[in-house]
Protein backbone atom coordinates (compact mmCIF):
# COMPACT_ATOMS: atom_id res chain seq x y z
CA UNK A 1 0.00 0.00 0.00
CA UNK A 2 1.31 3.45 -0.94
CA UNK A 3 1.90 5.69 2.05
CA UNK A 4 -0.33 8.76 2.08
CA UNK A 5 1.44 12.03 1.51
CA UNK A 6 1.50 14.57 4.35
CA UNK A 7 0.65 18.28 4.19
CA UNK A 8 1.23 20.89 6.88
CA UNK A 9 -0.78 24.11 6.44
CA UNK A 10 -0.27 27.41 8.27
CA UNK A 11 -3.60 29.17 8.73
CA UNK A 12 -7.14 27.87 9.22
CA UNK A 13 -8.93 30.63 7.35
CA UNK A 14 -10.86 30.12 4.12
CA UNK A 15 -7.73 29.35 2.09
CA UNK A 16 -6.09 26.98 4.53
CA UNK A 17 -9.28 24.95 5.01
CA UNK A 18 -9.99 24.86 1.27
CA UNK A 19 -6.50 23.49 0.50
CA UNK A 20 -6.76 21.02 3.36
CA UNK A 21 -10.10 19.72 2.10
CA UNK A 22 -8.92 19.46 -1.51
CA UNK A 23 -5.86 17.47 -0.47
CA UNK A 24 -7.72 15.24 2.01
CA UNK A 25 -10.23 14.34 -0.70
CA UNK A 26 -7.28 13.01 -2.68
CA UNK A 27 -5.92 10.85 0.13
CA UNK A 28 -3.45 13.22 1.74
CA UNK A 29 -2.96 13.34 5.50
CA UNK A 30 -3.48 16.99 6.41
CA UNK A 31 -2.71 19.05 9.49
CA UNK A 32 -3.77 22.72 9.72
CA UNK A 33 -2.18 25.10 12.23
CA UNK A 34 -4.29 28.03 13.49
CA UNK A 35 -2.57 30.67 15.60
CA UNK A 36 -5.78 31.70 17.42
CA UNK A 37 -7.05 29.58 20.27
CA UNK A 38 -10.40 29.12 18.54
CA UNK A 39 -11.67 29.08 14.97
CA UNK A 40 -13.36 32.41 14.31
CA UNK A 41 -14.44 34.19 11.14
CA UNK A 42 -14.55 37.97 10.93
CA UNK A 43 -16.62 39.70 8.29
CA UNK A 44 -20.19 39.98 7.13
CA UNK A 45 -21.38 38.63 3.80
CA UNK A 46 -19.36 37.16 0.95
CA UNK A 47 -19.85 37.16 -2.82
CA UNK A 48 -19.68 33.69 -4.36
CA UNK A 49 -19.46 33.87 -8.15
CA UNK A 50 -19.81 30.93 -10.53
CA UNK A 51 -16.10 30.06 -10.36
CA UNK A 52 -16.20 30.03 -6.57
CA UNK A 53 -19.45 28.06 -6.44
CA UNK A 54 -18.05 25.41 -8.79
CA UNK A 55 -14.94 25.15 -6.65
CA UNK A 56 -16.95 24.83 -3.45
CA UNK A 57 -19.12 22.17 -5.07
CA UNK A 58 -15.97 20.18 -5.88
CA UNK A 59 -14.91 20.57 -2.23
CA UNK A 60 -18.28 19.25 -1.09
CA UNK A 61 -19.46 22.38 0.73
CA UNK A 62 -21.49 24.46 -1.74
CA UNK A 63 -24.95 23.32 -0.65
CA UNK A 64 -24.24 23.75 3.07
CA UNK A 65 -22.45 27.08 2.67
CA UNK A 66 -25.23 28.64 0.58
CA UNK A 67 -28.31 27.13 2.21
CA UNK A 68 -29.49 30.56 3.44
CA UNK A 69 -27.99 32.67 0.67
CA UNK A 70 -29.97 34.95 -1.60
CA UNK A 71 -29.69 34.23 -5.31
CA UNK A 72 -28.67 37.48 -6.99
CA UNK A 73 -30.27 38.32 -10.33
CA UNK A 74 -28.81 41.78 -11.06
CA UNK A 75 -25.92 44.02 -10.01
CA UNK A 76 -26.31 47.78 -10.57
CA UNK A 77 -24.06 50.78 -9.90
CA UNK A 78 -25.80 54.17 -9.52
CA UNK A 79 -24.43 57.70 -9.29
CA UNK A 80 -25.56 60.39 -6.86
CA UNK A 81 -28.49 61.25 -9.15
CA UNK A 82 -29.72 57.65 -9.15
CA UNK A 83 -28.64 57.05 -12.75
CA UNK A 84 -27.65 53.45 -13.52
CA UNK A 85 -24.01 53.42 -14.66
CA UNK A 86 -23.49 49.68 -14.87
CA UNK A 87 -25.89 46.73 -15.07
CA UNK A 88 -24.94 43.07 -14.79
CA UNK A 89 -27.46 40.22 -15.04
CA UNK A 90 -26.96 36.66 -13.80
CA UNK A 91 -28.30 33.40 -15.21
CA UNK A 92 -28.40 29.72 -14.33
CA UNK A 93 -24.84 29.07 -15.55
CA UNK A 94 -23.48 32.43 -14.42
CA UNK A 95 -24.48 32.66 -10.76
CA UNK A 96 -23.83 34.97 -7.84
CA UNK A 97 -24.94 33.96 -4.34
CA UNK A 98 -24.39 35.92 -1.17
CA UNK A 99 -24.28 33.95 2.12
CA UNK A 100 -23.02 35.21 5.48
CA UNK A 101 -19.29 34.63 5.71
CA UNK A 102 -19.82 32.64 8.92
CA UNK A 103 -22.03 30.12 7.08
CA UNK A 104 -19.26 29.49 4.57
CA UNK A 105 -16.61 29.14 7.26
CA UNK A 106 -18.71 26.73 9.31
CA UNK A 107 -19.32 24.60 6.20
CA UNK A 108 -15.57 24.40 5.49
CA UNK A 109 -14.80 23.45 9.09
CA UNK A 110 -17.45 20.72 9.10
CA UNK A 111 -16.17 19.30 5.80
CA UNK A 112 -12.55 19.33 7.03
CA UNK A 113 -13.55 17.45 10.18
CA UNK A 114 -15.52 14.96 8.10
CA UNK A 115 -12.36 14.25 6.10
CA UNK A 116 -10.23 13.83 9.26
CA UNK A 117 -8.22 16.98 8.67
CA UNK A 118 -6.33 17.66 11.90
CA UNK A 119 -6.88 21.29 12.95
CA UNK A 120 -4.63 22.50 15.79
CA UNK A 121 -5.73 25.75 17.44
CA UNK A 122 -3.17 27.87 19.26
CA UNK A 123 -0.37 26.63 17.00
CA UNK A 124 1.68 29.68 16.01
CA UNK A 125 3.77 29.05 12.90
CA UNK A 126 6.67 31.46 12.57
CA UNK A 127 8.32 30.31 9.35
CA UNK A 128 8.89 27.65 6.77
CA UNK A 129 11.36 26.50 4.15
CA UNK A 130 11.36 24.90 0.68
CA UNK A 131 12.39 21.53 2.13
CA UNK A 132 8.83 21.02 3.33
CA UNK A 133 9.11 22.23 6.91
CA UNK A 134 7.13 24.59 9.11
CA UNK A 135 8.50 25.87 12.41
CA UNK A 136 6.35 27.00 15.33
CA UNK A 137 7.04 29.56 18.03
CA UNK A 138 8.37 26.85 20.35
CA UNK A 139 10.97 25.79 17.81
CA UNK A 140 9.21 22.56 16.85
CA UNK A 141 9.65 21.60 13.19
CA UNK A 142 6.73 20.03 11.33
CA UNK A 143 7.98 18.08 8.29
CA UNK A 144 5.81 17.12 5.32
CA UNK A 145 5.73 16.38 1.61
CA UNK A 146 4.07 19.78 1.17
CA UNK A 147 3.78 22.88 3.34
CA UNK A 148 1.31 25.66 2.58
CA UNK A 149 1.36 29.30 3.66
CA UNK A 150 -2.28 30.33 4.14
CA UNK A 151 -1.54 32.73 6.96
CA UNK A 152 -2.84 35.96 5.48
CA UNK A 153 -1.60 39.27 4.17
CA UNK A 154 1.31 39.47 6.61
CA UNK A 155 2.28 35.82 6.11
CA UNK A 156 5.30 34.91 8.19
CA UNK A 157 5.80 31.72 6.20
CA UNK A 158 5.84 33.58 2.86
CA UNK A 159 8.20 36.18 4.26
CA UNK A 160 10.56 33.60 5.76
CA UNK A 161 11.04 32.12 2.28
CA UNK A 162 11.57 35.57 0.68
CA UNK A 163 8.60 35.09 -1.64
CA UNK A 164 7.16 38.57 -1.04
CA UNK A 165 7.53 41.07 -3.85
CA UNK A 166 5.24 43.82 -2.50
CA UNK A 167 2.65 44.46 0.19
CA UNK A 168 0.81 47.66 -0.70
CA UNK A 169 -1.47 49.77 1.48
CA UNK A 170 -4.12 51.24 -0.84
CA UNK A 171 -5.96 54.54 -0.65
CA UNK A 172 -9.39 53.19 0.23
CA UNK A 173 -10.95 51.09 2.93
CA UNK A 174 -14.21 49.41 3.89
CA UNK A 175 -16.59 48.96 6.80
CA UNK A 176 -18.54 45.73 6.25
CA UNK A 177 -21.49 44.69 8.38
CA UNK A 178 -24.88 43.02 8.49
CA UNK A 179 -28.16 44.86 9.09
CA UNK A 180 -31.64 43.48 9.86
CA UNK A 181 -33.70 42.74 6.79
CA UNK A 182 -37.10 44.34 6.19
CA UNK A 183 -39.91 42.90 4.02
CA UNK A 184 -39.71 45.80 1.56
CA UNK A 185 -35.95 45.37 0.93
CA UNK A 186 -34.92 44.25 -2.58
CA UNK A 187 -34.15 40.54 -2.43
CA UNK A 188 -32.36 39.79 -5.70
CA UNK A 189 -30.47 42.97 -6.66
CA UNK A 190 -27.14 44.27 -5.42
CA UNK A 191 -26.85 48.05 -5.71
CA UNK A 192 -23.67 50.08 -5.40
CA UNK A 193 -24.40 53.77 -4.76
CA UNK A 194 -21.72 56.35 -5.57
CA UNK A 195 -21.30 59.88 -4.27
CA UNK A 196 -17.92 61.53 -4.65
CA UNK A 197 -15.24 59.23 -3.27
CA UNK A 198 -17.75 57.32 -1.13
CA UNK A 199 -19.63 54.18 -2.06
CA UNK A 200 -22.40 52.34 -0.24
CA UNK A 201 -22.99 48.78 -1.34
CA UNK A 202 -26.32 47.12 -0.50
CA UNK A 203 -26.42 43.32 -0.80
CA UNK A 204 -29.35 40.97 -0.13
CA UNK A 205 -27.96 38.19 2.05
CA UNK A 206 -30.54 35.97 3.81
CA UNK A 207 -34.18 36.16 4.89
CA UNK A 208 -32.99 37.72 8.16
CA UNK A 209 -30.11 40.06 7.26
CA UNK A 210 -28.61 42.16 4.48
CA UNK A 211 -24.92 42.86 3.90
CA UNK A 212 -23.79 46.49 3.67
CA UNK A 213 -20.33 47.77 2.74
CA UNK A 214 -19.25 51.39 3.24
CA UNK A 215 -16.23 52.40 1.15
CA UNK A 216 -14.24 55.62 1.48
CA UNK A 217 -10.73 57.02 1.09
CA UNK A 218 -8.26 56.67 3.94
CA UNK A 219 -8.22 60.44 4.54
CA UNK A 220 -12.01 60.54 4.99
CA UNK A 221 -11.99 60.55 8.80
CA UNK A 222 -15.77 60.74 9.19
CA UNK A 223 -16.30 58.02 6.58
CA UNK A 224 -14.01 55.50 8.27
CA UNK A 225 -15.19 56.20 11.80
CA UNK A 226 -16.33 53.20 13.88
CA UNK A 227 -18.99 53.15 15.22
CA UNK A 228 -20.28 54.39 11.87
CA UNK A 229 -20.97 58.13 11.72
CA UNK A 230 -24.52 57.76 10.47
CA UNK A 231 -25.09 61.49 10.05
CA UNK A 232 -22.05 61.78 7.82
CA UNK A 233 -23.18 58.89 5.64
CA UNK A 234 -26.74 60.24 5.55
CA UNK A 235 -25.30 63.49 4.27
CA UNK A 236 -23.72 61.61 1.37
CA UNK A 237 -26.70 59.31 0.75
CA UNK A 238 -29.85 61.04 2.10
CA UNK A 239 -32.13 58.74 0.10
CA UNK A 240 -30.67 55.68 1.87
CA UNK A 241 -31.76 56.56 5.38
CA UNK A 242 -33.75 53.34 5.62
CA UNK A 243 -30.51 51.40 5.25
CA UNK A 244 -28.18 53.62 7.25
CA UNK A 245 -30.47 53.86 10.28
CA UNK A 246 -30.24 50.08 10.73
CA UNK A 247 -26.46 50.10 11.13
CA UNK A 248 -25.47 49.28 14.71
CA UNK A 249 -22.14 49.68 16.48
CA UNK A 250 -20.76 46.35 15.29
CA UNK A 251 -18.21 46.50 12.50
CA UNK A 252 -14.67 47.60 11.74
CA UNK A 253 -12.96 49.63 9.06
CA UNK A 254 -10.25 47.79 7.11
CA UNK A 255 -7.77 49.42 4.79
CA UNK A 256 -7.54 47.79 1.37
CA UNK A 257 -4.28 45.96 0.71
CA UNK A 258 -2.62 44.21 -2.19
CA UNK A 259 -0.07 41.40 -1.99
CA UNK A 260 2.20 40.49 -4.88
CA UNK A 261 4.47 37.45 -4.65
CA UNK A 262 7.78 36.91 -6.39
CA UNK A 263 6.55 33.33 -6.78
CA UNK A 264 3.70 31.22 -5.44
CA UNK A 265 6.00 28.35 -4.53
CA UNK A 266 9.52 27.29 -3.77
CA UNK A 267 10.54 23.65 -3.51
CA UNK A 268 7.87 21.86 -1.45
CA UNK A 269 6.21 25.04 -0.19
CA UNK A 270 3.22 26.88 -1.69
CA UNK A 271 1.40 30.13 -0.90
CA UNK A 272 -2.40 30.51 -1.20
CA UNK A 273 -5.19 32.96 -0.46
CA UNK A 274 -4.49 36.46 0.85
CA UNK A 275 -0.90 35.43 1.52
CA UNK A 276 -0.50 35.03 -2.26
CA UNK A 277 -2.85 37.57 -3.82
CA UNK A 278 -4.69 39.84 -1.34
CA UNK A 279 -6.63 42.50 -3.22
CA UNK A 280 -9.33 45.14 -2.70
CA UNK A 281 -12.84 43.62 -2.87
CA UNK A 282 -14.11 45.77 -5.74
CA UNK A 283 -14.81 42.75 -7.98
CA UNK A 284 -15.67 40.41 -5.10
CA UNK A 285 -13.25 37.77 -6.39
CA UNK A 286 -10.66 37.40 -3.61
CA UNK A 287 -12.22 34.39 -1.90
CA UNK A 288 -13.39 32.86 -5.18
CA UNK A 289 -9.85 32.90 -6.56
CA UNK A 290 -8.66 31.39 -3.29
CA UNK A 291 -11.08 28.46 -3.67
CA UNK A 292 -10.28 27.80 -7.31
CA UNK A 293 -6.52 28.04 -6.71
CA UNK A 294 -6.79 25.69 -3.72
CA UNK A 295 -8.73 23.18 -5.80
CA UNK A 296 -6.37 23.42 -8.76
CA UNK A 297 -3.33 23.06 -6.47
CA UNK A 298 -4.56 19.66 -5.31
CA UNK A 299 -5.38 18.71 -8.90
CA UNK A 300 -1.88 19.51 -10.17
CA UNK A 301 -0.38 17.55 -7.28
CA UNK A 302 -2.44 14.57 -8.46
CA UNK A 303 -1.03 14.94 -11.95
CA UNK A 304 2.65 15.13 -10.93
CA UNK A 305 4.36 12.77 -8.50
CA UNK A 306 7.11 15.32 -7.90
CA UNK A 307 5.79 18.10 -5.62
CA UNK A 308 8.07 20.95 -6.82
CA UNK A 309 7.20 20.15 -10.45
CA UNK A 310 3.48 20.15 -9.61
CA UNK A 311 3.73 23.51 -7.85
CA UNK A 312 5.59 25.10 -10.74
CA UNK A 313 3.00 23.83 -13.22
CA UNK A 314 0.18 25.06 -10.97
CA UNK A 315 1.55 28.59 -10.81
CA UNK A 316 2.39 28.73 -14.51
CA UNK A 317 -1.17 27.84 -15.51
CA UNK A 318 -3.24 29.42 -12.72
CA UNK A 319 -1.50 32.63 -11.76
CA UNK A 320 -2.21 34.67 -14.95
CA UNK A 321 -5.94 34.82 -14.20
CA UNK A 322 -5.34 35.89 -10.60
CA UNK A 323 -2.91 38.61 -11.73
CA UNK A 324 -5.51 39.77 -14.25
CA UNK A 325 -8.17 40.14 -11.55
CA UNK A 326 -5.78 42.05 -9.28
CA UNK A 327 -5.14 44.57 -12.07
CA UNK A 328 -8.82 45.03 -12.87
CA UNK A 329 -10.04 45.30 -9.30
CA UNK A 330 -7.40 48.02 -8.76
CA UNK A 331 -8.58 49.80 -11.89
CA UNK A 332 -12.20 49.65 -10.76
CA UNK A 333 -11.25 51.17 -7.42
CA UNK A 334 -9.35 54.02 -9.09
CA UNK A 335 -12.27 54.79 -11.40
CA UNK A 336 -14.66 54.73 -8.45
CA UNK A 337 -12.69 56.67 -5.85
CA UNK A 338 -9.72 58.53 -7.29
CA UNK A 339 -11.57 61.36 -9.08
CA UNK A 340 -11.79 64.92 -7.70
CA UNK A 341 -15.33 65.88 -6.68
CA UNK A 342 -15.63 68.39 -9.52
CA UNK A 343 -15.17 65.60 -12.06
CA UNK A 344 -17.88 63.29 -10.64
CA UNK A 345 -20.10 63.71 -13.69
CA UNK A 346 -17.20 62.86 -16.02
CA UNK A 347 -16.49 59.73 -13.95
CA UNK A 348 -20.10 58.65 -14.39
CA UNK A 349 -19.80 59.10 -18.14
CA UNK A 350 -16.56 57.09 -18.28
CA UNK A 351 -17.99 54.18 -16.28
CA UNK A 352 -21.27 54.11 -18.17
CA UNK A 353 -19.49 54.06 -21.53
CA UNK A 354 -16.73 51.62 -20.53
CA UNK A 355 -19.01 48.97 -19.03
CA UNK A 356 -21.09 48.87 -22.19
CA UNK A 357 -18.05 47.80 -24.21
CA UNK A 358 -18.00 43.99 -24.67
CA UNK A 359 -14.22 43.87 -24.21
CA UNK A 360 -14.40 45.65 -20.84
CA UNK A 361 -17.26 43.43 -19.66
CA UNK A 362 -15.21 40.39 -20.64
CA UNK A 363 -12.24 41.58 -18.59
CA UNK A 364 -14.36 42.37 -15.53
CA UNK A 365 -16.07 38.96 -15.65
CA UNK A 366 -13.16 36.82 -16.81
CA UNK A 367 -12.72 35.03 -13.49
CA UNK A 368 -16.43 34.69 -12.72
CA UNK A 369 -16.98 32.81 -15.97
CA UNK A 370 -13.85 30.67 -15.68
CA UNK A 371 -14.32 26.94 -15.08
CA UNK A 372 -11.80 26.02 -12.38
CA UNK A 373 -9.38 23.14 -12.86
CA UNK A 374 -10.72 20.21 -10.86
CA UNK A 375 -14.35 21.38 -11.01
CA UNK A 376 -17.11 20.05 -13.24
From TrEMBL:
GO terms for molecular function: FAD binding; monooxygenase activity. It holds the Pfam family FAD_binding_3. Residues 9-313 form the FAD-binding domain. Keywords: Monooxygenase, Oxidoreductase. It comes from the Bacteria. The keyword Acetylation does not apply. PANTHER family: MONOOXYGENASE, PUTATIVE (AFU_ORTHOLOGUE AFUA_6G14510)-RELATED. This is FAD-dependent monooxygenase.
